[in-house]
Amino acid sequence: MREKNIDIEIRPDNARVSNLSIFLTRQESKFPRLFNLILYVVLPLFFLVCWPIFCGHFLAVLERTSELKANDAIFENRANEAMRLDSLIVIVQRGYDDCFEQYQQKSSSAFVNITELKSFMQDCTSLEVQRSHEIKEEIKKDLDEFYTAQTSFSWNTCAKNETMLSHAEQSSFAYDHWNASFHQLQETYLNIDGESDKEESIRLAMGNATASDSCILNSLGGSFFWFTIMTTIGYGNTAPVTPQGMTLVIILGFVSILAFATFSVAAGNVITTISDDFLRRVKLKRMTKGWTSVIFWLITFVLAVLLLAEVTRLYNNKLVNNESDGLWTFKERCWFSFISLTTVGLGDYHINHEAFSLSDMFYLPPILLLGFICVANFLDKFSQAVAVTWENIKITNESTLADILHTRHIRCLTVSGKKPKSEDSVYARSMSVYDNVSSKDVLADEDESIVDFTSCKP
Question: Is the dihedral of CA 159, 160, 166, 168 positive or negative?
Fold first, then answer.
């Protein structure tokens, strides 16, 4: 009774598996192209887009605090430099005292002519003060640009709204919040310690001021960074710095690379098969093999480069207020597309993480993935064409390197007096066509011109 009960419980599961298998087989028979496109192209590419969103979020969580602290340190240095510049103006203003002394030495009268004194002081100090202000503004602008470039917003977004997403705007917004935090803390320390400890209050306020309250987690920026890891592009514009983040990249990053390689090969094979079938149907069979197919896939690769260049232009447009300012030229966009699709990723041009949104994740990465497939198919057709060319000019023969080495191994065993294993004997019989001799002759061959006895080691 027990065995019968077990059978009753198992059969429905087997029936479900069988029915599912039958259903999938029927669908593949009815719609072979659509079925394989969905199963081996659409679903894997969708997974390769969603997987970085999952991993990138956790990586951004691990790296967020470290980036905020680094930015706070940059803002502190920036404020220190601004204070030093302000002190220069104070020094110049002290020149008023020197000018007054010069007036006293110049004037022979014991009485001060106010109008004359005022005119003299303006002439004496106006040029120096004006020039000092000009120098201050020039230096301040250079320092602002320098410290703005040092800040990072790969794992955080510091913006009031979605229209303030460029790197410079986020840096300015975060610095304003850091300044507000600094002045608030300085007033607090002054009220506690008194006016006599003003310098100490400045030092404490600078050490504790932060702009973290103005920033939120940029998990989508982390998602695109993870996408560059998975596809091995690696622009190098940012990297994890915490031990936890590095560990996550080592473990899940390697898994991501394996998934990308596996799914890309499968998708590439399906797309190649479907495209070759289409070309045969429209009587363009010549474009499915040889150097003609290489040219065909080279053209698709060029089209993928141009498509990615145009998409990059649309993405960069939302990072700048003025369309003529800060945008890449057509040549630069094509260069970026090439180094991205070939996974070179030099880093001179890269996608900024600051403004990366969820909608961007579903058009930039898919286009890159399709471009990778075009590159892979081009390389596959190229290698096939080269192999056929070599065979036609008799550079290689039909036997592979593995066939030749295995045959030499069997001969070495025979010469040394050892009996080949059963699988080696079977292999020798299958390879007897190679030397146009029987399998028995292959196993008994002791011709030194054919077998290198020095390579036969016991």
Answer: negative
